[in-house]
Write a structure and sequence with these properties.
globular; 3 helices; alpha+beta
Length: 170
């Protein structure tokens, strides 16, 4: 779980990115599962964009693996009126940027990669802290995410009719 402070830091990074690249029309940080983390996407449905990003990411990861080009780093789509660029942001998130057609693509990639790295550091650190807090102690009544270890009861061999004797079998 990401704290409000961490979410605000991600949102601040998205705003700074839009200031550094004026041709950006939107910026979205999302989990690889398609859930929105933070967004600055006026006029665009962030949940829909996050879901589409996750779908495109799935295909991009498969293409990179099938061609032996290593893990996913970025995906760029150029449309008639602009760009959609998605960058890896840590282990569990991506940064998706929307830009006008007249954007300097080199600058888009430079700033997108930097912001993706920053956002990834923030989210990965927040996830690690949450994991550590869960391991350190749970409130009373909390349910463990992992089932308790199973113990086996030793079986006793079943008796056969030849093994059993009654008082009358002498």
């Amino acid at each position: 779980m990401v704290s409000e402070e961490d979410l605000q830091a991600v949102l601040d990074e998205l705003h700074r990115l839009r200031n550094r690249v004026p041709q950006l029309t939107g910026a979205l940080a999302a989990g690889v599962d398609g859930l929105v983390v933070a967004h600055d996407t006026p006029g665009v449905d962030p949940e829909g964009l996050a879901a589409l990003t996750a779908a495109a990411l799935g295909v991009a990861v498969r293409v990179a693996e099938a061609t032996a080009n290593g893990g996913f780093r970025e995906l760029t789509v150029r449309g008639e009126r602009g760009y959609v660029a998605t960058y890896a942001a840590g282990r569990t998130a991506v940064l998706t940027l929307l830009a006008q057609d007249r954007v300097n693509v080199g600058r888009l990639h430079l700033e997108g990669r930097r912001s993706g790295a920053r956002i990834g550091e923030l989210l990965d650190a927040a996830e690690a802290a949450a994991r550590k807090a869960r391991r350190a102690g749970r409130p009373l009544g909390a349910v463990s995410a992992t089932p308790p270890p199973r113990t086996r009861t030793p079986r006793t061999p079943r008796a056969t009719s030849a093994d059993t004797h009654t008082a009358t079998d002498s």
